[in-house]
Amino acid sequence: MNIATLMNDICWSFGRVAFASVISWLCCICVGIVLHKFRLLYKIFLPLINFLRQISPFVWLPFAILLIGLGEIPIAIVLFTAMFFPGVIMVFEAIESFPRDIHEEAVTSGANHFQMVFLIELPVLWKQLVNIFRILWSVGWSTVIAAEMLGVSRGLGFRLLDFRYLLEYQSMLIYIAVIGVIGIASDRLILRFTRAD
After folding, report:
1. Which of 20, 25, 72, 196 places its Cα 20 to 30 Å from the Cα of 130?
2. Strands, DSSP E only, in 35-186?
3. Nearest of 187, 196, 180 to residue 10 by alpha carbon
4. Is residue 196 predicted with pLDDT exceeding 70?
């Protein structure tokens, strides 16, 4: 096993998860806010969101490969679907739990919808939103390993499959340990933001 190859695989897997996590998290916040503010949309789309979040994201991988081909886009689609649908539900529930007394005080003070969302609700809910990102990151990190086994030539998941074909079981164990260590380390790092005063 080559250290340079290991570091390169770590960078590729980490970058894929980082990109997909940030995009899906921001989309979840936007959609969660819209569904909270417009109850009709919530009633219309909640059943669909609940339906889609029950489906494994890997179901979409063959369709993505068929329509787009191999490469980064199918992996990004799998990662996004794995995180987006449960993330929307979590964001919506976080906004629903917003303290009613703070909301009433803001309305009494004359806060408009923009001020309510960006100056009051999001800052108050910041720790919950970061915790949601932490959960989404964990989902993405476990998903990317399997997703990389199809259609790309770099990443921890691809290399694990390669080692399996080559019967390099010692290298496989090292990669598995690295995946676990990075998962724990990234989780602890994100957790620090939820505990920051």
Report:
1. 72
2. none
3. 180
4. no
